[in-house]
Each structure stands twice: as structure tokens, then as C-alpha cells.
Design goal:
Length: 356
């Protein structure tokens, strides 16, 4: 991997105190605005570019609590949503939670039976099970989430999947994914870690499960009805299911993020299990033109870049197009060298290879 240049992401005191800047999981560029999320909160952050052409810093952070726009499923509105993907298209910003379970970790102070007991404990959080669509309005020249907007005489409200439409429930009887629902995400269980939107198509990338080396991308067609405008519903495909499965040859890796590039999808891929690497960027050619469940291999997919990673740090988690030929990559658990003395964190800009 060759870094073309770097940018500084400057967060406010509250986000630094919450360690959002060292737990980055999702990113999407929106003109002179950078939408970003960490996996330990139920918020989306907006950073502003320092200059319109080639930004070298994004700062002036504004935090938006998801619960201020939609009802979250958890009893505690500020319980972490584990936002793992952001998408920006048309008049909307989309956010997806991991939908994963988690296993307790053995920490340094734990030993013997106490450590084993902790490792056996599995828990879930309701707020992780979200798919949210927020209207974006121009407020004083800045894209801003709002509860409602009017476009061409039609009102659009902030909307989310309801409990009854929960993706975990919809996948319960799936022959491939259903058996992995009780398994924690980092043990190759269900773990959604990317979202891309193209027209009415919403793609969700799964870090896990990976089956015999094949990774999964789910395709949804969400919509809202006039009689319940704050509820996302899922349109059925021809087989009667509200989702379509695509399987991808990512050489044994899972999806860590998705990003549209025209009709293609760029895929940030990394290990499903709790490993450092390898980490790669792939291109699924013509993804948005696929009309059937697709086996994505051979000429349909190419490896574009190998992304560097550290030992216990520098885990690439978020991917966004930057112009037409570059991508911005942000990292969870950034290496010490990425943390500046004045409180910023460094992200990388990578040059994509020329398209054929």
C-alpha cells in the first residue's frame, strides 16, 4: 500500500473523552463534510473540511444523537449502537448497526475459573440492531440531519426498521446465516460492518459469517409508506424474501466496509476473527446492475489494493471515495503515530489503480 497523502481528523473534547477518535468504524465524504461514527456510541459525527478543494484537516465537530431523530430499540437511548457503516445518497444519510452478539473478554486481572466464566458469557444489545435513514437538509450551507424535509412537495421523515422487522429475526430461518445468529460476531457469527446505497438498493456487508471462504453481502429494498412514514419496511424480492444474498470470493476475508463507485462496489475486507490482517480493497464490478443472487468471483471481482495493518493496532474499518480515483481509510485502534499532540487522529488517502 502506498499512501498518497494523509488528513487530520480533529474531534472535540467530548468525543475524545468517549474515545470515539480511537474507535472509528464508519466514514463517508459528503462534499466539504465528513460523516463519521465510532462503535462505542449511538451518535454520528460531522466534521468540516478546512478547505474546499484538497482538505488536509476535518474538524469543527458536531455530534448528532440518533435518538433525537428515531426511536432506538434499546431501553437506554444512549446505549451504544455499534454503528459500523454510513451511506450518503440523495436526501438521506443511512446508518447500520452491527447486529452482532459479543463475548466477554479475559482481561489481565482475570485468571482461572473467573476467566473461563467470563469467556463463556455472551450478550447482545438492542441498539446494535438498527437500520436508520436520516433526512439531510442544507442549513446555512452545511448538510445537517433533520427529523423531516420536503422534496418536490413530498415530506420525508427520519425512519428506522422496527423491532418486528429486525434483521436478526428475518434471518432466523436462513439456511446459510441462521445457524450463526447465536454466535458472537468475532467468533464468525453474524456481524454487519458496511453499508452502501445505490438508488433504491441498500447493500449490507457482513464481516461474518464467512462460509468456506465465501463472504456475504445482503441486498435490501427499503421503503416507507404514507400511513407510517417513520417506519422503514423491506420490499420482498421475487422469491418472497425481504433480502437477497450475494456471496463473494474475498479470499477468506469478511467485509469491513462498503462504498459505491458508480455501479461498482468497493469492498474493504479483513479477517472475520480477532486478527490483525490481511486487509484489502476489492472492486465488485457492476454490483448495482445485478438482478439475481450473484456468485461474485473471477472477472466480477478484482483486488485493488493491499492495506497496511499493525500488530494489535491500525485496523482499517471505514472506507470512502475521495474524488474519482482515491479513497479515504480510517482506523480503529490507531497506532500511536496516528495520534497527534494536539488531539487529532491521522487517516490515509490511497490512490486507486486505473480502471480498465
Amino acid at each position: 500500500m502506498t499512501v498518497d497523502y494523509t488528513v487530520r481528523l480533529r474531534f472535540g473534547e467530548t468525543s475524545r473523552a468517549a474515545a470515539t477518535h480511537t474507535n472509528l468504524s464508519a466514514v463517508r465524504l459528503d462534499g466539504h463534510v465528513l460523516w463519521i461514527a465510532g462503535d462505542e456510541t449511538a451518535t454520528v459525527e460531522r466534521l468540516m473540511a478546512d478547505q474546499p478543494e484538497k482538505a488536509i484537516e476535518f474538524g469543527d465537530e458536531t455530534t448528532f444523537r440518533l435518538t433525537d431523530f428515531v426511536d432506538l430499540p434499546g431501553d437506554d437511548a444512549d446505549e451504544e449502537a455499534d454503528v459500523e457503516g454510513l451511506a450518503r445518497t440523495g436526501h438521506f444519510l443511512w446508518a447500520i448497526g452491527s447486529h452482532s452478539l459479543r463475548r466477554k473478554q479475559i482481561k489481565e486481572r482475570h485468571d482461572g475459573p473467573q476467566a473461563l466464566k467470563r469467556l463463556a458469557k455472551i450478550e447482545g444489545q438492542d441498539n446494535r440492531q438498527i437500520l436508520v435513514r436520516l433526512p439531510i437538509a442544507d442549513v446555512d450551507g452545511v448538510p445537517t440531519p433533520v427529523r423531516e424535509i420536503e422534496v418536490d412537495g413530498k415530506r420525508h421523515r427520519a425512519a428506522a426498521l422496527r423491532r418486528r422487522d429486525n434483521l436478526r429475526s428475518l434471518l432466523r430461518d436462513d439456511e446459510h446465516l441462521g445457524p450463526f445468529l447465536p454466535i458472537p460476531g468475532k467468533d464468525n457469527g453474524l456481524d454487519i460492518e458496511g453499508i452502501a446505497v445505490r438508488g433504491d438498493r441498500v447493500y449490507l456487508g457482513l464481516r461474518g459469517p464467512v462460509l468456506r471462504g465465501w463472504a456475504f453481502v445482503l441486498e435490501l429494498r427499503p421503503y416507507v409508506s404514507d400511513d407510517d412514514p417513520d417506519r422503514l419496511r423491506l420490499r420482498d424480492f421475487a422469491d418472497g424474501l425481504p433480502y437477497r444474498k450475494h456471496v463473494l470470493d474475498l479470499e477468506g476475508l469478511g467485509v469491513r466496509d462498503l462504498c459505491p463507485d458508480g455501479d461498482d462496489l468497493l469492498i474493504l475486507a479483513g479477517p472475520t476473527m480477532d486478527l490483525d490482517g490481511p486487509v484489502r480493497i476489492y472492486r465488485w464490478h457492476g454490483a448495482a446492475r445485478s438482478e439475481i443472487p450473484t456468485i461474485v468471483r473471477d472477472t466480477l471481482i478484482t483486488r485493488e489494493l493491499d492495506v497496511s495493518y499493525g500488530e494489535g493496532d491500525d485496523h482499517a474499518e471505514g472506507l470512502s471515495m475521495l474524488g474519482t480515483d482515491r479513497v479515504l481509510v480510517v482506523y480503529d485502534s490507531p497506532a500511536t503515530a496516528r495520534l497527534t499532540e494536539d488531539g487529532a487522529v491521522i487517516a490515509d488517502v490511497l490512490l486507486l489503480p486505473p480502471r480498465p
